[in-house]
């Protein structure tokens, strides 16, 4: 889908961008991305125009095309960067060592901390996946699969070593990830619980989920 289909026809800007202010010349990609993220979270991707993004950072909409080729690129890069950050945090938690339970705790804590600290990224990432075009859609989906697989691998190892007791590690990983993702919907920095406390508490819940007794007679086929 082109920018024109999203209400962004570049042709009407022709000949209107010759006079560029110093502000327009020095704006960086990170500033543009931050403005786009805020607007995507507030209004939604489809309701946000390049002119809106330009106005948010004090430059004319057509001048954005000097820095980024389309609104779709902004969305794609935001969502890819979000998943890469999550994967980097997950790998760092795993690399810190310890037994399988401690590794899982650290991975869950990292997952929750990210969603408490980056609520806009989480919101946009969950809501706007349907508006991603190729190649970004495929890239983000592959990164999501890798992230889930990273947690599931630890759960499976814990089951093999006898530390965890779950009939279906994949469903357990989905449940833990969804639990942490939900933090982004309600967490507030000025709320009664800090991000660290929530991260520790959610890690406790995850460990209990994996170490509690299976229901009598339950097998993977029953799930």
Give the SSE layout.
Layout: H1 22-26, H2 29-43, H3 50-56, H4 71-95, H5 100-117, H6 119-127, H7 136-161, H8 169-181, H9 183-186, H10 195-211
Features:
mainly alpha; 10 helices; 0% strand; elongated
Description:
It is a single chain. This protein is elongated. Helix content is 62%, strand content 0%. The protein has 223 residues and is mostly helical.
Q: In what range is the share of β-strand residues?
A: under 5%
Low-pLDDT stretches are 1-25, 215-223
Helix proportion: 55-70%
The tally of helices reads 10
**What is the tally of beta strands?**
0
Roughly what is the average pLDDT, rounded to an integer? Answer: 87
- Report the structural category: mainly alpha
Rg, nearest Å: 21 Å
Calculate the terminal CA-CA distance, rounded to whole Å.
40 Å
Q: Main beta sheet, described?
A: none
Tell me, briefly, the overall form: elongated
